[in-house]
Specification:
about 575 residues
């Protein structure tokens, strides 16, 4: 046993500490991420269950028991994620698809998933130490001076008191997504036994897509929004276009900001069109609400459904303003130029805002102002941000002469129009869907038509606006030099030419009192308090204050010959010792 090295208990604890720290950082981190994703999905389901249960309790004619309410809750939660449902209890006996998701119902699940992804990166120890080195869980850019400590991929270096997240980004993202999808799978299995059954194809596409994208955004935000992942995604674009989407300082580029402004204007304009149409057809909307249900609980449920469908209505209004319009049933398109007569539809308050069938009038054509305003806003945003490094644009006194070239501004506006068209096309896909078969197989705008119309409108408006505003900003006429300055320059040049190079260095004193003492102090020096002489460098030659026969005293604002130094005493006032 001579070759056996005995270890003390303290040594074994020291050697096993790194291994225990690694196990504690990895395994509980993945487990906490799984729990976070599952809790986020469970809270979203619970919120939907409370809402549906409240409406069921207050309904005077409940059609099913609590089991049916829970089945509807699970189906509604999946529908909010974009999954298509199949209704099996139709009058004809033929299953009918239901794929029109209320987009507002997705807001809370998305927020919960974002919070879960952010919290999963700290491994549940965000407020304390990790037990292995005394480092905090997350160190953001703001916690470190000048952004020091960031690695190339956006990870933070471990410094004393602040360190990288305990859980790796891939681990946190994987755990949150798997936990969320586990609850979604259980909800889909449970909902498959109800009246509204999820379509497994669309459930397997949209729910994982929403979970992956939102969880990725949450983890990316928790790591301080590093630019490495975005730069890797933008490698498919030419180098000249990459700074337009992601600036070198980590902020969104000019094209990205302009696209966001264009999307906001289009959606806001679409919502405004819907609101104006509802006000104009207020009588029909009120009659449809009163005719649809009699009890106050039923009317509250209809109003809540209208509110949940308002984002869909905003997208439909934007599609109407862009020109393609939207389908109100298969083969029935409603647009500003012409509207086909819609099929027989149940009364619903939002449907009362649909324009009448027939040729469009000037009131319908006025909706084209929305894309024009969006294009102008995008063009001005591009022109405002047209500065090197995309650091905020040309500001007063800060470099109008360094603005972009017209070609670069046009390229940024065109790229912003392309991004805005892609976003509107994606929203058109989410905002529409079927409500049945045959005529009811299509509701909402066509995504490719909306994308093409958005690209056409914004390219035709935003590009000329960006070029024109950019040229106007670069057109900065040189301000006239002040008259006083020109007179001083001319006078100084004249004085230099007359007196010569030898007397130019000591060309007199600076007016007023200096002129009165010029003969007493020819060297241009003044005695200070200590009795010594100190040289005084004149700011302005004495010759500037000489009188001119035609124009009077120069370098004065008035022509009265008034001089403030004429009233000052030339000799110092007698002190007490001289009295």
């Amino acid at each position: 046993m001579a070759g056996v090295i005995k270890m003390t208990a303290a040594a074994r604890r020291r050697l096993s500490a790194p291994l225990l720290a690694r196990v504690r950082d990895r395994s509980p981190g993945l487990g906490d991420a799984l729990v976070s994703g599952a809790v986020a999905a469970g809270l979203g389901l619970a919120w939907c269950a409370v809402l549906v249960m409240l409406l069921w309790i207050t309904s005077p004619y409940p059609d099913s028991g609590p089991s049916g309410v829970l089945h509807v809750t699970a189906a509604l939660w999946l529908l909010a994620h974009g999954a298509e449902l199949i209704r099996v209890d139709t009058l004809s006996g033929v299953p009918a698809p239901v794929g029109l998701p209320p987009l507002l119902l997705l807001a809370l699940p998305v927020w919960l998933l974002l919070r879960a992804a952010r919290d999963a990166t700290d491994g549940g120890a965000g407020d304390g130490d990790d037990g292995a080195g005394g480092f905090k869980a997350i160190a953001t850019v703001e916690d470190l001076e000048d952004g020091e400590g960031l690695r190339e991929g956006g990870r933070e270096e471990a410094v004393e008191g602040a360190g990288p997240p305990l859980v790796d980004a891939r681990t946190a993202w994987t755990g949150v997504v798997l936990g969320y999808l586990a609850v979604a799978l259980a909800a889909a299995l449970f909902a498959s036994g109800g009246v509204l059954r999820p379509s497994w194809l669309w459930t397997g596409v949209y729910v994982p897509l929403v979970a992956a994208v939102v969880a990725g955004l949450g983890v990316w935000s928790a790591y301080g929004r590093p630019g490495g992942p975005l730069r890797r995604l933008l490698r498919v674009l030419p180098k000249g276009l990459r700074p337009l989407l992601h600036g070198p300082d980590g902020r969104p580029g000019v094209a990205a900001r302009a696209a966001a402004a264009g999307v906001a204007v289009l959606l806001g304009g679409g919502a405004l069109l819907v609101a104006v149409s509802l006000v104009a057809h207020g009588t029909e909307a009120q009659a449809s609400l009163l005719r649809l249900t009699e009890g106050w609980s039923g009317r509250c449920a209809v109003l809540l459904l209208c509110v949940a469908l308002m984002p869909n209505a905003a997208v439909w209004g934007a599609a109407y303003a862009l020109g393609p319009g939207f389908a109100l049933g298969a083969g029935h398109v409603v647009g500003p130029l012409s509207s086909a007569p819609p099929p027989f539809l149940p009364t619903f308050p939002l449907l009362a805002a649909v324009p009448e069938a027939g040729q469009g009038a000037w009131a319908h054509w006025a909706a084209g102002v929305v894309p024009v305003v969006a294009g102008v806003v995008m063009g001005r945003t591009v022109a405002k941000g047209a500065a090197p490094g995309e650091r905020g644009g040309t500001k007063p006194g800060a470099g109008r002469d360094v603005a972009w070239s017209p070609w670069r501004g046009a390229a940024a506006a065109a790229l912003a129009a392309l991004l805005c068209a892609a976003v509107l096309a994606g929203l058109a896909v989410l905002a529409g869907g079927p409500l049945g078969v045959a005529v009811l197989a299509r509701f909402g705008p066509e995504w490719w038509q909306v994308g093409a119309a958005t690209l056409s409108w914004l390219t035709l408006v935003a590009v000329p606006t960006a070029v024109g505003v950019g040229l106007w900003r670069r057109r900065s006429p040189r301000a006239e030099d002040p008259v006083i300055g020109r007179q001083r320059e001319q006078a100084s040049k004249g004085a230099g030419s007359v007196k010569g190079a030898g007397k130019a260095k000591s060309a007199g004193t600076a007016g007023g009192a200096g002129a009165a003492r010029a003969d007493k102090n020819p060297e241009g020096t003044l005695p200070d308090k200590t009795g010594t002489t100190a040289s005084r460098t004149p700011d302005v030659p004495y010759d500037l204050y000489e009188y001119d026969a035609l124009y009077g005293p120069q370098d004065q604002d008035d022509d009265t010959g008034y001089h403030p130094y004429d009233f000052l005493p030339t000799d110092p006032a007698p002190g007490p010792d001289r009295a």
